Amino acid sequence: MKIAVDAMGGDRAPAEIIKGAIQAVQKYSCEVVLVGDAEKIRAILNDETDGQILPITIRHADEVIQMGEHPADAVRTKKNSSIVVATTLVRDGECDAVLSAGSTGAAVAAAQLVLKRIHGIARPAIATPIPTPNGTTLLLDSCANVDSKPEHLIQSGIMGSLYAEHVLKIKNPSVALLNIGEEDTKGNELVKETYQLFKKLSTINFAGNAEGRDIPRGKFDVVVCDGFVGNVVLKFGEGLARTIMELLTDELTANGGAQLLGRKLIASTFRNMYKRLDVSENGGAPLLGVNGYCVISHGSSDAKAICSAIGITCDYVGGKVFDRIRDALDN
Predict the structure, then answer these.
(1) Partners of 132 in the β-ladder
(2) Which of 73, 103, 295, 304 has the smallest number of Cβ neighbours within 10 A?
């Protein structure tokens, strides 16, 4: 399996991206093609590997799409940008998947313009795994499409169900529609109309409406919403998790909890909690609905997160989700 990695995308590029790629090829059965400024990449790669031979190659790209640029315009004008070149490697069959921690908009635009959408999919969706006490809830869309129609949400439900089944290994995953109440009469026109369409769909396990609190509780396996709402939920959850950890630390320190309960016990408990909540443990979110495998990582990703994202990309490709989505829509 060969993964094209946008080495120039992300707040910590290219150093952390390259370090993550090195960790990944040592941990997973894959090859990595680092796409970007070849001179910079080669210098860092040589320093980090100390002459060790690894399944990593370099493809030069002398342009970078910055966070503030208009995604679609930048993809069309910067043909030699790292994300466009990396995505083209997938389109041309040289790589199995593309991974980027750069501009989400640019990654989505490149996937749609270069790979194109799967026939029958009007808008792709980003599927983000959310840690819960029971395992994982898959939230989609989390920012690929901020203005949705009912058919877009239905397609997200189908794609999310297939991903949950074949990558997360959840048998007959439950799919819910994010709303402000459980009743089918609640919500705006978009969700009320979508609810009625979901009820008629026999190919997935539709379980009704989900409220915001149901996401971290793990009540449903897949939760569907438009990209605007999904991104707000995701960013709020990340901030809340960090705040809770900081508050717990402050309280235990202030009240002498470390001495009372034992420093080792607290340190071990905190490490385990943080590992479950840490976005770097689930470093990548697949973009579902395009003709190829594309995974988007957090802009602040460090080496650990990139390594994790490459592992998720391998699972995504291995689960043949793209083929299953295409077949499901044909049926």
Answers:
(1) 135
(2) 73
Nearest-angstrom CA–CA distance, 263 and 249: 12
- Tokens 């109309």 belong to 193
| Beta-bridge partners for 288 | 125
User: With 90 as the cut, is the pLDDT of residue 206 above it?
Assistant: yes
Q: Identify which of 125, 131, 111, 197 has the alpha carbon closest to the alpha carbon of residue 162.
A: 125
Residues 167-194: pLDDT tens digits? 889 999 999 999 999 888 889 999 999 9
Write phi, then psi, for 112 (nearest 5 degrees).
-75, -40
The answer to whether the beta carbons of residues 226 and 145 sit under 8 Å apart is yes
- Rounded to whole angstroms, how far apart are CA atoms 100 and 87? 10
User: Who's near 243: CB < 8 A, 6+ residues apart?
Assistant: none
Element spanning 269, H or E: helix 263-277
Based on its alpha-carbon atoms, the radius of gyration of the chain, rounded to whole angstroms, reads 20
From the CB of residue 233, how many other CB atoms can be counted at a distance below 10 Å? 20
* Structure token pair of residue 43: 């210098």
CA angle 288, 298, 127 (to 5 degrees): 25
Strands 174-178 and 125-126: unpaired
Residue 191 CA to residue 226 CA, distance in Å, equals: 9
